[in-house]
Amino acid sequence: MKSRFLLLLLVVPSLSAQTYTKWEIGPVFNAIFLNKSLNQFQPQIGGRLTLNFSKFLAVDSELTSSIVSQNAASNYDGGYALLFLCGAKATARRKNFALFAKARPGLISYSGAIKSLINVPPFVITQRIGEFAMDIGGGIEFSAGRRLGFRYDFGDTIVHQPSLQGAFPLPSHNVNNFQFETAVAFRF
Description:
The structure is a single chain. The chain is mainly beta. The chain is built from one helix and eight strands, in the order H-E-E-E-E-E-E-E-E. The protein has one helix spanning 2-11; strands at residues 23-34, 40-52, 57-66, 81-93, 97-118, 123-143, 148-161, 173-187. The longest helix has 10 residues, at 2-11.
């Protein structure tokens, strides 16, 4: 208990030291590991927009898309992934860096999920599907001046996969996916 109190005493006086601006925008590179059974690595690029309500609380959003298609597909995923997330970000700021936690619900859409199979000749029919996603994690931001920053995120992107009906029915379930992001923030 004493160690937590000491940590709080060290952090609180310096929370207001790092300057912040109302808006942040910039490119993001995202590496997410989807479909653990097939070990699918999905590099993604996109953009980020953040609205800071105060030094401590913000709405953080991003839109990213795969730059390569998955090598394998299932009824749940396949093809290119498009990911949109928007949620809360809580930040503790120091002079040149900040630590943050984030919780961002959103959607992930796949361009080539398997819809059905036709036996003669063997064809696979694919479709675009969308699933609920939740990104929970944290990271660190470094300031390179008042208007420029660099951000590194680590998180768990939880994807809800609905139940499947048919010859081999599967119940709905959630899949955890490790995600690493790096971004540049232009502040204004």
